[in-house]
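Annotated sample (chain length 203).
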Amino acid sequence: MKKFSKNVFLNCPFDADYDNLFNAILFTVHRCGFILRCSKEFDDTSKIRIQNIIKLIGESQYSIHDISRVGLDVHNQLPRFNMPLELGVVIGSINFGKKIHKNKEYLIIESDQYRFKQFISDISGQDIKNHQDDPEKAIKCVRDWLAKRTNKMIPSASIIFREFNNFTDSLPELCKEAKWVVSELTFDEYSSLVSTWLALDNK
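Output written by the structure step:
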């Protein structure tokens, strides 16, 4: 399966409050030599969203699951279960999927390391990492996990965080050259800018 061993599926919220964490994780995944996949790359409205997610999971050896946003929605006072559901799909694919999926690995991250026990205690016993809603800590969680899954020499988390800030500072100029607007970037466009900037070795 093309790029299966390099694909990292990201299961996380897509609200504006999460944008900086999302961007930090995306940057780190690419900095470690992997490719971030998520449902943001789809605009096919003819398919049910879960079908697109299952496709991405099927194409990815690795996945990262941020289960920190399962609290009550401010509008309807109901919990958001998308993240635990997608984690369940991955665990199911490892146990019941084809041979290639037996080698899948996943990382679970949270804003509070032990909060998950209150709503999804069945995953107790796993090494769940705590990012405290801090992009620098999220970068360390992801970097340290991916560094064990590649033969490449990966810079320390603090260096990647500095590079991420440098990239963020350069983003307006990069967008200007491409005739894009930072606030209007699509997932594919942002990913392309990250990859291009990293390839230029101007970190």
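Annotation: The chain has a mean pLDDT of 87.
Annotation: The helical segments are 19-31, 49-58, 82-96, 135-147, 157-178, 187-199.
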